[in-house]
Each structure stands twice: as C-alpha cells, then as structure tokens.
Design a protein that fits this description.
This protein is α+β, with helices and mostly antiparallel strands. Helices cover 39% and strands 27% of the residues. Helix 9 packs antiparallel against helix 10 and helix 12 runs antiparallel to helix 13. Bound molecules: adenosine-5'-diphosphate (ADP).
Length: 506
C-alpha cells in the first residue's frame, strides 16, 4: 500500500509501550491507523529516544524507520528566529504539571539528514510519565497560499467575508474595519448592524439578495450598495456571494467578497460630467450662433438705417425727427453693448475667470443709486417705488456684481411691464442672517412650468421679444458665487417678483 522503503513495520517497538495492543493482529492495525493519519506523529520517551514515527512524519522529514531508537534532538531541530528551540521545549516537560507545549507560529522544522525544512504547526504532548508525542503539520503550502492571497488583497480594496450561520454574524476581513473605520471587537458584524449602515435606497435589494442566498437559491450576481463608513460618509461597494455546500437544502456557509467601487464611481461621475459639459458646450455653441446672429443684426440694422436717414442729404429732417432717430440709434447701441457685455460675462463664467471683490456695502446707498438711475427710464403710467426702509443694513459683497444682477432684473421688469408698478426693495430675512432683495412688477408674468427654465442660458418665454436670454443665467451664477440664491414668484398676466437672497456676512 505504501512505499516499501519508508513504511517497513517497526519491529523494535517496546512491548510495554502504551501504543502497543495486546490482542492478536492489533500491532499491525495500530501501525496502519497511524500511517493513515495526515498529521506527522513521532513518539519518544523521556530520554528523547524515538519509539515510533508514522508515514506522514517520515515523508515530510525524508527519513525512514531507521530513525527509531535514535534521539529526536539528533534527527530534527525546531527553529524559531534562527534558534533551535527543541531542547528547550523538551526541558519544559521536566516540570511535572506541563502536559503539552505548542510550537510557536513562524517555526521551521529542519531535518539535516533528510535535507528537509518546512514551516510547521505542532504540539508536543505528554502521554504518560515517560511517553511523549510530537504531532505536526507541514504548512508550507497553506502559508504560501495565505501569503499570496494576502499580498493580492493588500493592494486592492476587496474584502472577503463569510456568514456564520450558527452565531448569525458576518465575519469580515480585518482590513475592512480598518478601511471603513467601522468599530468592531472581533471582526464580526451582525446583519442588523450591517442593515442599518446601508443607504436607505439600497436596503431593499441587499435584503433580497442576501435572503435568496440564505434560502439556498444560488445568487452569484454582484449587488451595488452604499455603506455608512465610520466617519459618517457613504461609500459605494459591490458585494458578491456564493455558498459552501448545502445541508437539508440550506447553505452550510455563505461566503463572499465586498469591494469598494467608490474610485470607479468617482471616475464615472467625472466622465459623465465631462461628457455633459462637452455636450452642453456643443449645444451652447449652436444656440449661441443661432441667437447672436439675430440679436446682433437687429440693432445693427436699426443703427445703420437711422444713421443713413440722419446723414442722407436728400430728405431734410425736422429737428424732432432727428432727435427721435438719434434716440433710436442710442437705444440700439445700448442693446448691442449690453449684449456684448453679457457674452463677455458668459465666456468668463465658462472659463471660470469672473473675478469677485468683496467689501462692506451699505445696501441703502446701493439701492438709492439704482433707483435714481432707472427713475427716469420707467415708462409713463408705471409707478416705480423704492421700498428700502432699513438704512443701516451692511453686507459683505461684490457691489459691482450685485448692481449687475439688480440692473438686469430692473431692465427685465421694465421690458415686460406695460402698466401698474415696479417695486425695488430689500428686507432682512427671519433670522437676520440674510437679506432678501427684490424686484417686483405687474407685468406679463411667467407660466409656472417655465419659471425654472428662464434661468437657463438662451431661454426666453417668447422668442420674439428682444434679448439673448443670457441675463438671468448670468444673474444665477453671480448669486451663487456671492453665496446666495435667486428665485422667482410669478403669476401669468399678474406679475413677477424676483428675489435675490444673500448672506450679510461672507
Ligand atoms: P434677456 O436678457 O433676453 O432678457 P433673461 O435671461 O434676462 O433674458 O430673461 C429670460 C426670459 O425670462 C425673458 O425672455 C422672459 O421671457 C422671462 N422674464 C425675465 N424677467 C421677466 C419679467 N420680469 N416678467 C416676465 N418675464 C420675464
């Protein structure tokens, strides 16, 4: 059955040994039993003389049964940190109460005669007063595999785990707890704990996947989920599991891996936003070309046309006509100027080069100045009111950009209001941490479904009305950069109120 050079039955066994049996044929049976073991076994007496050595031990040490009768210390050494500790280990048995001594971790077993050397796990046990047993396992393959797995895993964010059915806990790679900062005592986590750490949107699918796996239905598919880390942040993971064996239709043990996919998610997100940006730029370019050609040509035509009328010598113009044409040229020049400055601002926003200079501002001074500026331009029959009662409000802001926003709102209010009133004002918010500035009109109003869209670039409710549709999108960017918000409350055919809310302190 076994290689004859190493498994010759040992004839020199002590007949009074505790390992010998008295019934006929028992000697052979015990021999075969020992040799069937997957653990190396060496029996020796109190002098250290080998009494018996089984097949697994002989195989590992590359020796045969001729070592029986020799001292164990002459045959092998147990090396821990470059020192042979076998004599010391044996010496410990001189103390009567010592029953067994475990070999420390990271220990080599060496046999010069057999030129053998391997990592070992083992135990020396006292069987009787004068009888000892060394049992050991060659763990080189195990350690190599473990080491390779550790090495492979250490450079990843993959964490193996298994579900212990008896204790009803998940036993997870200790690196997982170090990585996530989730506290643990013994690298375990109950399913309840795990469940409460899941993002509410992912709890359902995880419960389903785990439930199916636990019920014995094979579910080898990856499931994505977000888990609450120790620092309170959610992180994306992907989990996958399988099971070892089945007992009465239920899995014996569910094993799996859990892999952080946050880096992938971040890359995916930045790629999506880069793609969206590229698409948006493309759309912007087309919209820009379509809008600008029209918006530039209209005032230019008017400027050129009325200039020709003024300078053309054929028809003599009345002085009021000349004034009217000059006013029209001026108005169209202003349209062009404001269009060009909107385009410049848009490009600054695009390239992130719009500069902001913050300083302390008196709101009353700023609003009074704006009121004076627009008072004379308001159409006849429209009441223009300044509603700024509090003269002492100061805020940290960029006055130039703030003025630009209110300018834009006032120009719009005047453009879309034919009668009624336009109110310009501000008031402190409830907690007095912010100020709400408003421009309110009784103009045409904005349909409810378009009240968000008007803050998008080039969006106009009525494409026949003059304007490039850039003003409000610029206002929104500025409002956000100043740390605030802008919104509109409007009713169709009744009027609109634009509210710019900014913090008083930066
Ligand atoms: P523009 O510079 O062309 O005026 P805006 O971005 O300032 O563009 O405004 C976009 C659109 O929002 C306008 O074309 C108009 O349809 C709508 N809008 C803005 N302000 C008002 C207002 N006070 N009343 C009614 N509609 C308005």
């Amino acid at each position: 059955m076994f290689n004859s050079s190493v498994d010759t039955p040992q004839g020199n066994m002590c007949s009074d040994s505790p390992f010998s049996c008295s019934f006929p044929g028992s000697e052979k049976l015990s021999e075969r039993l020992m040799d069937a073991l997957q653990t190396g076994i060496i029996f020796f007496d109190s002098e250290g003389v080998i009494q018996r050595i089984n097949l697994e031990a002989r195989r590992n040490l590359h020796v045969d049964v001729s070592v029986v009768g020799r001292r164990i210390t002459d045959i092998l050494s147990i090396v821990y940190r470059d020192v042979n500790i076998l004599p010391d280990l044996l010496a410990r048995f001189r103390e009567v109460e010592v029953e067994d001594v475990r070999l420390p971790n990271d220990t080599f077993m060496r046999c010069e005669e057999g030129c053998a050397r391997f990592f070992v796990q083992g135990l020396i046990t006292r069987l009787d007063k004068d009888e000892f047993l060394l049992s050991f396992r060659n763990i080189v393959d195990e350690l190599t595999q473990e080491y390779m797995l550790k090495m492979a895993l250490s450079s990843t964010k993959i964490f193996p785990w298994y579900y212990d059915m008896e204790r009803e806990v998940m036993v997870i790679d200790s690196r997982y707890f170090d990585y996530t900062g989730i506290p643990t005592k013994d690298n375990t986590m109950s399913l309840e704990d795990f469940g409460t750490r899941l993002h509410p949107d992912d709890q359902g699918k995880m419960a389903d996947a785990f439930g199916r796996q636990l019920s014995g239905e094979h579910f080898p598919y990856p499931v994505e989920f977000r888990l609450l880390r120790g620092d309170g942040q959610f992180e994306w993971f992907e989990g996958q599991s399988s099971y070892l064996g089945q007992v009465e239709g239920l899995p014996f043990r569910v094993v799996g891996i859990c892999m952080s996919t946050q880096t992938h998610k971040d890359i995916e997100e930045s790629l999506i936003s880069a793609r969206d940006k590229a698409e948006q730029s493309d759309r912007l370019k087309s919209a820009f070309l379509a809008n600008m050609s029209h918006e530039i040509r209209t005032p230019l035509n008017a400027i050129v046309g009325f200039s020709n009328l003024l300078t053309g010598g054929d028809v003599s113009l009345e002085s009021h006509e000349a004034k009217e044409y000059t006013d029209l040229i001026n108005t169209n020049c202003n349209h062009l100027l404001s269009l060009i400055s909107d385009v410049i601002d848009l490009s600054r926003i695009e390239t992130n080069t719009m500069e902001y200079h913050f300083s302390r501002q008196s709101l009353y001074a700023l609003f009074s100045e704006l009121y004076q500026k627009y008072k004379s331009s308001v159409r006849e029959g429209i009441d223009f009111n300044l509603m700024a009662s509090n003269e002492y409000i100061q805020l940290d802001t960029d006055a130039f950009r703030l003025r630009q926003v209110i300018d834009n709102l006032l120009v719009n209010a005047m453009k879309f209001t034919a009668q009624g009133y336009i109110n310009l004002g501000y008031q402190l918010s409830e907690g007095e941490e912010c100020v709400e500035m408003f421009v309110e009109d009784t103009g045409c109003g904005i349909p409810e479904d378009q009240q968000e869209k008007i803050f998008e670039r080039f969006y106009k409710v009525d494409s026949f009305v003059q304007g490039a549709g850039l003003g409000l999108s610029i206002c929104k960017t500025i409002a956000e950069r100043l740390g605030g918000t802008i919104r509109v409350v409007s009713r169709l055919r009744e009027g609109s109120k634009f509210i710019l809310r900014l913090p008083l302190r930066r």
